[in-house]
């Protein structure tokens, strides 16, 4: 009788790991502590609940590394991508998701799978035997976190992740704001108008920065340190780095024309992206914040068009725990000191929904193959998944290891191609062509062929 695979955590990584292993014929038990044990960030007991942005970022599989990761997950019959594609929202070339039906679909598909069962309750110790994947993400419980720290002989690394506010659309003044994707990007009118834009002149921007810097912020507890991931910096931290930082970051005005004042170039632009299929909620893009709630409403209502904004959710901040994976995990994502335990998702030191789900996909397949007596090799380094797992399990410098999004900087160079910005398009296409061939080969090697995306 086939041994059971136990997965701790029902987020993106745990859900994808369960789907992959179950489809290979291995019995799976998902141990999810919610809703018995709540977290400050989650609202439901659904699996794969999205707690921060609703974006999977670029869906371009020829010129973007995360789009390539989407392609590889689709090629492997990934559940997370199936649900994302089913509940896709217009986002100007990005893949944005209607978060609640997305999570419900993942939950329903897993609960209906004959090889999957879900047990509610907290796991607070490292199991000594059996096959396990720990995919507890950035909100690993205190008990399990202590057990991991005791086993690894050092405190787990930690940084703080900030959450962006969400605004009710009907409270936005559309006589000041307008709909447009940057550079009108997108193949349809819906895609080309996927973002809501709020313009600022120079005086308004300067006043906004002053208020942002002066606003009271969430205080850290004694003994905590704030080591932010650069891809998710709070806006006030960016502002502290220089008054122009936001204007050249999430508030950059390039590629946008204000139809209310077409001859006036905005000094800065705040963008909002649709957060649900109904179009009733919009999240403020790149506006993660640790401002206290009262200050948030005052400061954010300084944005033209948001003077009377009503907030469905204000921003927040939470601790994000991850392993020093280059020293602790092997190429199969196993804990070196306890090889019956694999880790997957953000706790391994990847950043982002897609990267987390991708590491779950690999961990699920590798664990299932091992249980079935036909171990899989590590994925080829030339694939997006291979480049990412190689980075976190050995390619990164352990002393300075920080969470990483997938990017072409992790890929081995393609010989004979032009460097620099002018050669970038050909170079990226070569990376993605090579990666797709490598990934198809890995899937075929494991006799785990899945329908290939077009």
Could you give a short description of this structure?
The chain has 13 helices and 17 strands. Belongs to the MnmG family. TrmFO subfamily. InterPro entries: FAD/NAD-bd_sf, MnmG-rel, MnmG-rel_CS, MnmG_N, TrmFO.
Notes on the protein architecture:
- The protein is 32% helix and 17% strand.
- A six-stranded mixed β-sheet has the order 6-2-1-7-17-16, covered by helices on one side. Strands 10-11-12-13-9-14 form a six-stranded antiparallel β-sheet. A three-stranded antiparallel β-sheet has the order 3-5-4.
- By secondary structure, the protein is α+β, with helices and mostly antiparallel strands.
- It has helices spanning 12-23, 65-75, 79-86, 99-112, 142-152, 189-192, 202-214, 235-240, 293-300, 325-328, 353-371, 384-395, 424-445, and strands spanning 5-8, 28-32, 55-58, 88-89, 94-97, 116-120, 131-134, 157-163, 166-168, 178-179, 195-200, 268-274, 281-284, 311-313, 316-322, 334-335, 338-343.
- It is built from 13 helices and 17 strands.
- Helix 1 runs parallel beside helix 11 and helix 3 packs across helix 4 (99-112).
- The longest helix has 22 residues, at 424-445.
- It folds into two domains: 5-156 and 323-445, 3-Layer(bba) Sandwich (FAD/NAD(P)-binding domain), CATH 3.50.50.60; 163-319, Elongation Factor Tu (Ef-tu), domain 3.
